[in-house]
User: Fold this.
Amino acid sequence: LSKKYPEPRMFRVHDRLRKTYDVVIIGGGGHGLASAYYLARDYGITNVAVLEKGYIGGGNTGRNTTIIRSNYLTPEGVAFYDQSVKLFEDLSQDFDLNIFYSTRGHFTLAHTDSALRTMRWRAEVNKHLGVESEVVGPEEVKKACPPIDITCGGHAPILGALYHAPGAVARHDAVAWGYGRGADKRGVEIHQRTEVLGIDVEGGRVKGVQTSRGYISTRKVLCAVAGSTPRITQMVGLRTPIYVHPLQAMVTEPLKPWLDTILVSGSLHVYVSQSDRGELVMGASLDPYEVQSTRSTLDFVEGLAAHMLDLFPFLSNVKVNRQWAGMADMTPDFAPIMGKTPIEGFYLDAGWGTWGFKATPVCGKTMSYTVANDQDHELIRAFSLSRFAEFNLTGEKGAASVGH
Ligand code: FAD
Assistant:
């Protein structure tokens, strides 16, 4: 008598790896899974393996503070992230899975004249490309968020802000699961606890991948491993300017809903939103040292809590429930590195630092195109690895650093 059990809710588990795949994707974060999803859905390429050394979404995808926006500084950045916001807006329907996408409006606070200057610049670039952004005065910030202390305890009065109406948050795990489930349904294999240990390159072209569960032959490898990028690029002898710093975050105990918007302050090194569960989700800037570690520190909690109290003194008795860290793969110009590389069949989706969650859908779209056609998608041309050798950087620091 054999019992009939329901289909797996998310994705199948495979006992063994195939000997060969058309495409191997290293990294089961949002970017790797989104690329697999669109490869299968848009190009019919389903003989694909996603190899994840831990569990899906266990990297930066499940550790980020989920801020989604497109108010960047360079025209290339704005066009790219705008496409991602548009994809995000329909993702729950696309997946038939609720990703709790919530448009909240996003304020980047200015406490100095120079910060205001950069915001005016960003607002103009954004408007030019049809993205809603405007500079507003402190009274507008107070109107949108009445509990805020606009003087920040007298330390750093708010002079104005860049307001970006489409700014949103979403449930990060659900984004990974939605892409994973959709890819699996179309025939892609997801292999958790499968680590890539080496990449076989012969005559300048990819031949296969050595994993903790055996060898796979393949002619196309997409590397989407965020903070582990230098380890993988080393396997193919590729040099990139990526350096890795920890980035930490924390949440409070759940509170009744009181914070409707997303607030970011570059000067105070703090950003905050309130999740659907009521927790305040908070982060700061990068840890100042280069290290590949996901340990969180007391120093971080103390510093961030002090700055939160500058903005919201009434939170002084609220408890912090959890803190954690991810590994941010930073680039010198704060723009990603995407596309083809000098090694034939080796594609890179990296340099996502502190800002890559919002790019998950557009990365999937553009990287699947690039892998399927062996040609860089037009939206990612400004992000090629060769820009560093050509001194042709895509300077996003004014919009990408603490603002995420
Ligand atoms: P990941 O989700 O890190 O996935 C990579 C996967 O590769 C991991 O699961 C890892 O286990 C796997 N892997 C590594 N090496 C191997 C190997 N050898 N073999 C097999 N698998 C391997 N971005 C925003 O847009 N908004 C934000 O508000 C925001 N806040 C952030 C806050 C924090 C605290 C952090 C850490 C990041 C934040 N980010 C934010 C950045 C964002 O999280 C990342 O850029 C994004 O999630 C990267 O996704 P990914 O799929 O490329 O990488």
Q: What stands out?
A: The two ends are 55 Å apart (CA to CA). The chain is about 25% helix and 25% strand. The pocket of flavin-adenine dinucleotide is lined by residues 26-32, 51-54, 58-61, 63-67, 195-196, 224-228, 247-249, 283, 326, 328, 352, 354-358, 404 (CB under 6 Å).
